[in-house]
Every structure is written in structure tokens, then in C-alpha cells.
Amino acid sequence: MKYFIEVVKQGGMTNASKSLYIAQPTISKAIKDIENEMGTPLFDRSKRHLILTDAGQIFYEKSKEIVALYDYLPSEMERLNGLETGHINMGMSAVMNMKILINILGAFHQQYPNVTYN
Fold first, then answer.
1. Which of 43, 46, 92, 111 has its Cβ near the most Cβ atoms within 10 Å?
2. What pLDDT is stored for residue 82 in this prediction?
3. Cβ neighbours around 96 below 10 Å, total
4. Strands annotated E in the chain
5. pTM for this one?
6. What's the pLDDT band for 76 if we cut at 50, 70, 90?
7. Where along the sequence do coiled-coil regions lie (predicted)?
8. Contact between residue 35 and residue 41 where contact means Cβ atoms under 8 Å apart
């Protein structure tokens, strides 16, 4: 899917292959494999440039969503596994209720034990 997205962004397989540092035949085969799997052409190849078919446009939009979710997964898995780390510096108003702040920080520390703050 990443190859397909890059082909669309770059306007062709040659430019996509240069951008991705992948051999152009590898890109072409990947696109052909996707088209075979989907059972429909994703590009109109009759013109000088590659133009998305209606199916290609749908596949492009959905592929961007899928790739974005996939790219987000590692950080989400870290969050679920409690691996967040870091440090937060805070300031507060003199009129803020200290008891409320202590309760908030306690709950935050339970959820994110590897985050320190002062």
C-alpha cells in the first residue's frame, strides 16, 4: 500500500521508485499484485501519465487511512503497555486548590508511572 500511495503522490512508478529507493520493476509488480488481488485496475494506463480509476481513487483514500493507522500502532502499543516515559514541568496559580491538584497528579501517576514531574 505504501508503494501505491507513493506512486500516486509522485505521479508515476519511476518517480516513486526513486523516492523510495526501490527498483522500478519492484514497484510495478507490487501495483500489479494489488490490482490482481482487488480484481480491478487502479490506474488508467492508456494515457501518457498514470491516472487513477474510480476504484484506484477509493483504494488510494482507504490506503492512506490504513497506513496512517498502521504507522500509529507502535505508539499506541507503547501506551497500552505502560511504556510512556518523560518529564513534565508544571506551574500553577496560587489560587488553585492544592487538594484537587494532588488528586489529579495521583491519578496521572497511576496511569503513567514512568512519567516524572515537578
1. 43
2. 64
3. 10
4. 43-44, 51-52, 86-88, 115-117
5. 0.65
6. confident
7. none
8. yes
Residues 2 and 41: their CA atoms lie apart, in Å, by 17
* 46 HSE (CA, 13 A, CB side): 3
Size of the chain, expressed as the number of residues it contains: 118
φ, ψ (nearest 5 deg) of residue 113? -65, -20
Domains of the chain and any CATH numbers: 2-80 (1.10.10.10), 86-117 (no CATH)
Q: Give the pLDDT of residue 94.
A: 65
Cα dihedral 47, 51, 23, 6, rounded to 10, equals 160
Cα dihedral 53, 57, 62, 65 in deg (nearest 10): 140
